[in-house]
Amino acid sequence: MARVPKIAIIGGGIGGLAAARALQLRGIEVTVHEQAPRLSEVGAGVVTTPNAMKALRALGVEDAVLASAFASRRQVVRSWRSGRIIDQTRLDRYRDRFGAPFCTMHRGDLLEALRAAVGDAPIRLNARCVEVSSDARGAHARFADGSAVEADAIVGADGIHSAVRTSLFGAEHPRFTGYVCWRGLVATDRLPQGLAPPDMTAWWGPHGHVVHYHVRRGELLNWVAHTETVAWTEESWSREGDMDEVMRTYAGWNPKLLALFAATERCYKWALYDREPLDHWTVGRATLLGDSAHAMLPYLAQGAAQAIEDGCVLASEIARTPDDIATALQRYEALRIPRTRRIQLGARARGRDNHLPSAWARLKRDTRLALRRWFRPNATLHQAEWIFAYDAARDGG
Ligand SMILES: Cc1cc2nc3c(=O)[nH]c(=O)nc-3n(C[C@H](O)[C@H](O)[C@H](O)COP(=O)(O)OP(=O)(O)OC[C@H]3O[C@@H](n4cnc5c(N)ncnc54)[C@H](O)[C@@H]3O)c2cc1C
Predict the structure, then answer these.
(1) Nearest to 86 by CA among 260, 300, 254
(2) Best mutation site among 70, 158, 236 for ligand 1, i.e. most ligand atoms within 8 A of its Cβ?
């Protein structure tokens, strides 16, 4: 490499830190500019499917992540009222099938593993980017405090409301999907005996579904309850919700689920947004990564996973042609856009199928799933084999 390229990443979330680590491992100089006064994640869970775990392995953080993760034996889908099993699959076979386990973990634990790997030195806090531009000499970022940086490339990993995306492609608002969620965390020793077996569980019902799974070695149970609405559209992960509203919304659902809600002290409420897939992420020497490039619904549990994969592929393309960064960024987006677009659109379709309002439509769906399970007993729940089989280190470029 003639000269070590300097890359500036805007945003120190899961995507930004994964990219920083991937670039460091390739010997590339990187700085992360984060608007918040400290790196933090909301108190909630995240699913790391085998493709995410393989990417974390490539970043050298698999062991750190596994030390606090939880690996459920089964994934089960139940009917909202009766609890009848609609579909189920064995997760403990995924390590052999896909080359890495299927885990669930606390988002803070994942972010901390990445931060520890990156180190504090390259991370600049209280740095809110307001504008990015690119010319023949390099890429430039301006910050709210009046400071500026110049780098060989700038990567916008600044989330769904990305300032970098607006700078590069103009203002375009995320799309309200009509879904609202509540999320809660409960210490498992506070749950009534047998309430939540250590299966990753989804309850599908009319106009909504609820998912719960263990995190932090099984010490906490994370739940997310989704419903449909047109009335409330605030996109904030830290807005406290009202447990009485949760109980009212899910009145008539299975008593075990209601007991889980009743055991939860505090919940948070937010509206789900996504973006239309973009045809391009790159302008000159500036590009996008993670939610800023491909914000998606969480119904395939792939937002963070895709952000981590993006970071691995970006670093390998920059390392291939460090003297021609603009071409490296073009290759990066060409490798990543088809996969992330398919997942964005697939996650939308899943939302509709999880919430079917009519009993007849649900019966048809459940029969179709039962037949599929009969013929393909080892199939993944959402026909996600093509997502899980991907290995960013092998298939990324
Ligand atoms: C209900 C729900 C459940 C989910 N479950 C899963 C799951 O199970 N598995 C999964 O893989 N994904 C899941 N996701 C998606 C996942 O959380 C996101 O896709 C992922 O966090 C995106 O990471 P990111 O780094 O791109 O963006 P973010 O996590 O949003 O990070 C962006 C960072 O940039 C900073 N920033 C923003 N603007 C600026 C600025 N102007 N200047 C500097 N810094 C800035 C922010 O402070 C933040 O630190 C879920 C999402 C939701 C809503």
Answers:
(1) 254
(2) 158
Q: What is the pLDDT of residues 20-39, one digit of tens each?
A: 999 999 999 999 999 999 88
Closest atom of ligand 1 to 302 CA is 11
Query: Which band of pLDDT confidence, cut at 50, 70 and 90, is reported for residue 90?
Result: very high
Phi and psi at 134, nearest 5°, equal -140, 135
pLDDT class of 301 with cuts at 50, 70, 90 = very high
Name the residue with the closest Cα to ligand 1, atom 15. Answer: 303
CB contact set of 102 (below 8 Å; sequence gap of 6+): 47, 48, 49, 50, 53, 71, 72, 75, 91, 94, 388
Mutation probe of ligand 1 site: the residue of 46, 287, 288 with most atoms within 8 A of C-beta: 46
Cα–Cα distance for residue pair 275/117, rounded to 1 Å = 31
pTM strictly above 0.90:
yes
Question: Is the distance from CB of 200 to CB of 74 less than 8 angstroms?
Answer: yes
Output the CA 165–ligand 1 centroid distance in Å: 14
Q: Is 248 left (phi over 0), alpha (psi -120 to 50) or beta?
A: alpha
In order of their start, the domains of the chain are 6-173+275-395 (3.50.50.60)
Q: What is the pLDDT of residues 34-61, one digit of tens each?
A: 999 988 777 789 999 999 999 999 999 9
Q: Rounded to whole angstroms, what are the CA distances from 217 to 56, 62, 221?
A: 18, 15, 10
Instruction: For strands 208-215 and 200-205, give the pairing.
Output: antiparallel
- The CA 39 to ligand 1 mean position distance, Å, reads 12
CA of 14 to the centre of ligand 1 (A): 7
